[in-house]
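Hello forum,

I keep getting stuck at the same step: I have a sequence, I want structure tokens, and every attempt I make locally crashes halfway through. Rather than fight my setup again tonight, could one of you with a working pipeline run this one for me? It's a single chain of 272 residues.
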Amino acid sequence: MPRPITKDTTLCMSLAARPSNFGTRFHNYLYEALNLDYLYKAFTTTDLPAAIGGVRALGIRGCAISMPFKEAVIALVDEMDESARAIESVNTLVNTAGHLKAYNTDYVAIRKLLAAHRVPPDCAFALRGSGGMAKAVACALRDAGFRAGTIVARNEAAGKALAGLYGFDWRAEMGDWTADLLINVTPLGMAGGAEADTLAFDDAAIRAARMVFDVVALPAETPLIRRAQARGKPVITGAEVFAIQAVEQFALYTGVRPDDALFKRAAAYARG
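Reply #2:
Ran it on my machine without issues. Output:
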């Protein structure tokens, strides 16, 4: 029988432009499996300062931060952990008696996935995007030894700034250029938006690539992932990123780290 919700139940939450059930299913599965008196709920907002004020005022223990709030939330927190300060991007808030400390567990997830999938650091990559998540990915790539990289971003100022920060090149569009590793860090292909059916890279680029990586977690198989699989390319999915960074969040919120077997069961359940 599920644990009853009471006045003492600890609440954790997420904020995203397009909330999904992945985090809700993942965290609540682990709470029940570990008999923790916690509850997790996903939210969206059009008033970020008010939402973060609510996290602080209501004693909400943890808050996951997703696109497009990863950078805007920085001005609203009390303390930045080194993981967030180093890349000026936040995906996790921990509330301790009204003190909000910001972290970034995306970086950890990207590093682990690059290693797990044995992506060779000597390959050339194209990273499409220049926002908060793109910072985490670019930093993880640099720290994993990748040197031949290009940031693909229409926003010239943001794209050049990101490229310069981590020692990569910039270009506004792919054009006829190709890369060994294609990485999408934009909302292209995300469910619920006007560009849900849009490929982040065209078919020629996908055919030329050795591997494709899409950080979009909703749906688990984006148009880019489906096209890459159809072309026989190895892929890394946003669902993998989400699961690894979520377990890091879980440990920050609860002080408990599930073992690997339980983590895998929770991730499978979350994917539905």
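The domain at 118-233 is CATH 3.40.50.720 (Rossmann fold). If your local run keeps crashing, start a new thread with the error log.
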